[in-house]
Design a protein that fits this description.
By secondary structure, the chain is α+β, with helices and mostly antiparallel strands. The chain contains 4 helices and 6 strands. Helix 2 runs parallel beside helix 3. The protein starts with a helix and ends in an 11-residue tail after the last helix.
Length: 146
């Protein structure tokens, strides 16, 4: 099954309108695509105690894990930037990539299904395409605990 890059990026952009980012003013949206054709989105949620903030990718993974999804992750789109007049992230020149924590959280879900999802990181005029294994080489995951 081919994943529509434009549609997944649009879903991530739409998710960014739901970001709660009163401290940074930086809205992030993520969209996760699965082998069964389903898509789940998430937005960043900040907190006055800065270390308790949730990234968009982590928010989306938590949703699917709480719904019982274990694996099947095939693609992720991430977009971030200052909000436009509709609250959607307006990316800067450099594409936004998942932070280290999000890479690990995505890796857990991917390893449960034995996938290496493509990650589309959106910039103002380009999309950086990488595999999760490129973003997190030599990842630690469920297989390391056996």
């Amino acid at each position: 099954m081919a994943i529509d890059q434009s549609a997944l990026i649009a879903a991530a952009r739409e998710a960014s309108t739901r970001a709660y980012a009163p401290y940074s003013g930086f809205h992030v949206g993520a969209a996760l695509a699965f082998a069964d054709g389903s898509v789940t989105t998430g937005a960043n949620v900040e907190n006055a105690s800065y270390g308790l903030a949730l990234c968009a990718e982590t928010s989306a993974v938590a949703q699917v894990m709480n719904a019982g999804v274990r694996g099947g992750l095939v693609a992720v789109a991430v977009i971030g930037g200052a909000p436009d007049e509709h609250g959607a992230a307006s990316p800067g020149a450099a594409p936004v990539t998942p932070c280290g924590r999000c890479r690990q959280v995505l890796n857990e879900l991917a390893q449960l299904g034995g996938t290496d999802p493509v990650i589309w990181c959106v910039g103002a005029g380009n999309v950086l395409e990488l595999r999760l294994s490129e973003l997190l080489p030599h990842a630690f995951g469920p297989a390391n605990l056996g």
